[in-house]
Structure formats: structure tokens, C-alpha cells
Amino acid sequence: MKKYLKKIIVTILEYEARIILARYTPRIVAVTGSVGKTSTKDAIFTVLSSAYYVRKSEKSYNSEIGIPLTVIGAPNAWSNPLLWLRNIFLGLKVIFFRSRYPEWLVLEVGADRPADIKNITRWLKPDVAVITRLSKVPVHVEFFSSPEAVFKEKGYLAEALKYNGVLVLNNDDEDVLAYREKTQNTVLTYGFLEGSDVRASNDAVVFEKQGIAKVPTGMTFRVDYKGNSVPITISGGLGKQHIYPTLAAIAVGLSQNINMVKMGEALKKHVTPKGRMRLIAGVKETFIIDDTYNSSPVALKEALETLSNIHTRKRKIAVLGDMLELGRYSTEEHKNAGKLASVVCDVLVTVGLRARDIAQGALGEGMDESTIFQFEDSREAGKFVEQLLEKRDIVLVKGSQSIRMERVVEEIMAHPEKSENLLVRQEEEWLRR
Fold first, then answer.
1. Residues 189, 32, 400, 389: is their CA dihedral positive or negative?
2. Tens digits of residue pLDDT in 127-171
3. Which domains does the chain have, with CATH numbers?
4. Which of 212-226, 237-251, 253-267, 336-350 has the lowest mean pLDDT?
5. Can you tell me the mean pLDDT for 39-46?
6. Over the stretch 90-105, which tens digit does the pLDDT of each residue have?
7. What is the rounded distance in angstroms from the CA atom of residue 377 to the CA atom of residue 379?
8. Rounded to an integer, what distance in angstroms lies between the CA atom of residue 381 and that of residue 405?
9. How much is the pLDDT for 1?
10. Looking at the DSSP assignment, which residues form a beta bridge with residue 204?
11. How many alpha carbons fall within 13 Å on the CB side of residue 385?
12. CA dihedral for 403, 306, 298, 119, sign (positive or negative)
């Protein structure tokens, strides 16, 4: 019965979204990929907002129900039927009572299962499509026949571009670059590699002196496009996981003739998304890299590489939870993560049944057993890490959504009273779970 009601609601909201798009004709940026969709969507919103009235998908509203909600401008009603009814009436209000509607919509488009994007693009035709990064073992691959099937599904977004649209691709990912064959429209590329239309270089961690110590506060890099160059500073976040979304956003801005300097100024005020390589002060004057929103093999690898590039005399601790929805690739990918962690970390803490293979991978690579700790519950792991911490340690916390690794961060952050503003999944619906 519940499934049947959901289908009815989705159908009604989608129908309303189609009418609203036809009535108001906003321009649309649609973002997909296996890694970095939400961060990219947020950065694009920041850039376009410097010149236009823009609405973006909230959080990760990237599904058959999340995208219509964004078009309507309605919140997630979770399991409350009265709120869903209110959302339906809100859609009717937008249709029948003309109001000021955004000039641009920035929509995240996900593919949890086969035909997800194919079905959405039957009615959603973007002016700009952005494909961020793929993974040889994508998240959600367990619901597809192969990684190639995931790649094909993502490609439907490129094929759905409007005439004279723009396709923005990650030049550092050869699988993403292959999508240029899916369109006759303009293609803009971004990345670090030579040949990228929008190219980053000279990336470095920014340190700020606090007392006698220097602490990481963000990062800086340069962006070049057709002989023009601007410096970009990102506060509160670390890693290429923030650089790539910024490059994609600048490429989108350039496609709409927004000045690079203006975009650089807008990005100075950009707030990095919660749970995505975000810097948070920890107890005992420690530093937390909060990457707890979700996890996948390629994202975890990048997070560990970022941790390895931070120069410190103190310990590097990785607290890593299960990576879900990897199907038959799960054991191998968790062990591979453990091998990399063994090289990067002084201490490894795993959370979850699947993450035991991370510990096994680290042990197999020669990491001392006395520096590896395993837990099944994130809250319990957090309490242990709090006791383990020493002054100036740097802690990376990462895991898939259902493992609730934000609970680890809450246990070790310096100001847990600010968790609602700093951490992911702090809504009442999540806290009850």
C-alpha cells in the first residue's frame, strides 16, 4: 500500500513539475556522476547566483521525487501524508498563480537503479549538463549488471541536452570524456591535466598560525582559461574534492559569459557542504576532516590522499566505515582501501561489518595490529576515538550514509552543541533513526 501511494505521489509531483517548467521556462543545469555531485551542484549555485536568481536541489534531492520537489520549491515530507498533500497543493499554486520563479535551476540527478536517469530525461531537458567523475566501481553498482551499465545510465543526461546546450566534462577522467561523443553541442572540459579548457594548478593547503602551531584552514589554487587566470581560495575544506566542483562551476559560469574575477569573488563566500571534507575543530585541540556524507572507493581514495598530503608531526588517524552498495566488489574494494590507509595513517579505526575488510587489507600490508581498532557501532567508535586522541592529531572520518559516521564526529568535535549547523543528517527524521 505504501509503495502504491508513493507511486501516485511521484506521478502527481512529476506532472506538476513538467507544467511548471513549461510555464516558467527556467534554464536548467543538471549534474550527475559517481562522485562529487552535491558539492558541484552547490558550487554552481554559488557561481550562477552572482548574476542570476537561482534555485538548487536541497541536500541530495536527486531522485524521481527529489527533482520534482526542487522544481516546485517544496520540502521533503518524509513519511507525513499531510505534508505530501501540502506539497501537491503548493505545486498547483505555482501553476495557477504566477509568481517570481528562478531564472536557473541547478539540479542534481542520481542513478540508484537502472533507468533512473533515462526516465527523468524523458521530461527534463537541461541547458547545461555536468558530469563530474565516474568510478571503476561506482556506488550503487550492486543494482546494475556492471560498471559499464552505470556509465551508460549517466550518459542519458548528455543525450538529453537541449539544442545549443553545453556539456561540461571532467577532463581528468577518461570515462567521463567519452561522453563528448554523446552530443553535437558545445563541450567544455575542466581538470588539472593539460588540455583542460578550465585548468587548475598550484593547489596548496592554507595554514593559519594559532599560538606556536600552524593549523589547516582551507586551500588555494589557480584557475586558467584562455590566457586568463584567477586565484581561488576555499575556506573550511580540504582536497581536490573541493577543487573539481569549483572548476565545474567556473566552466558553467563561463558558458554563460560570467566574468572570471566575479566568479572568484563569489567563491570566496562559498560555504563547503556539510560532511564533505569539511574542517571541524576537535577536542584536545585536534582537527577533524569530516567526510561523513557518504563513501565510495574513488572518494575514499581521494580522502586518504588528501590526508597523506597534510604535513604534520602529529598522528594521522582514519576512522572509516562501511562502503555500501558495492555488490560483488565489496570485499576487494574494502581491502584496497585498507592497503592505502596502512601507508597514510598512524592509527586506523573501522566501523561496520564490511569495514572489517579495511582492517584486513591494512594488516595484510604490514600495518601494526596494535594500531588497528574495529567497531560495529559508530557512536561506540566515537567514544573510543575521543579517549585515544592526543593534542594536534588530525582525524579523517568517512563512511556510507547508513553507517552514520557523523556520530563519530559528534563525539570528538570541540563544540557538539553546534552539531546541527555543522554535521549532516541532523534533521529530526534522521535523529529518530
1. positive
2. 999 999 988 776 667 788 888 888 999 999 999 999 999 999 999
3. 2-268 (3.40.1190.10), 278-431 (3.90.190.20)
4. 212-226
5. 96
6. 999 999 998 899 999 9
7. 6
8. 9
9. 54
10. 220
11. 38
12. positive
pTM as predicted: 0.91
Ramachandran angles phi, psi of 34, nearest 5°: -95, -20
* Cell output for 216: 589547516
CB 239 within 8 A of CB 277: yes
Closest CA to 352 of 379, 374, 384: 374
Residues in the chain, total: 433
Q: 4 vs 133, which has greater pLDDT? A: 133
SS3 per-residue string spanning the chain: CHHHHHHHHHHHHHHHHHHHHHHHCCEEEEEECCCCHHHHHHHHHHHHCCCCCEEECCCCCCCCCHHHHHHHCCCCCCCCHHHHHHHHHHHHHHHHCCCCCCCEEEEECCCCCCCHHHHHCCCCCCCEEEECCCCCCCCCHHHCCCHHHHHHHHHHHHHCCCCCCEEEEECCCHHHHHHHHHCCCEEEEEECCCCCCEEEEEEEEEEEEECCEEEEEEEEEEEEECCEEEEEEEECECCHHHHHHHHHHHHHHHHCCCCHHHHHHHHHCCCCCCCCCEEEEEHHHCEEEEECCCCCHHHHHHHHHHHHCCCCCCCEEEEEECCCCCHHHHHHHHHHHHHHHHHHCCEEEEECCCCHHHHHHHHHCCCCHHHEEEECCHHHHHHHHHHHCCCCCEEEEECCHHHCCHHHHHHHECCHHHHHHHCCCCCHHHHCC
- Which cell is 35 given? 562522485
Bridge partners, 373 (sequence order) = 349
C-alpha cell at 273: 557542504
Give me the pLDDT at residue 109, please.
95
How far apart (Å, rounded) are the C-alpha atoms in residues 68 and 94?
Answer: 13
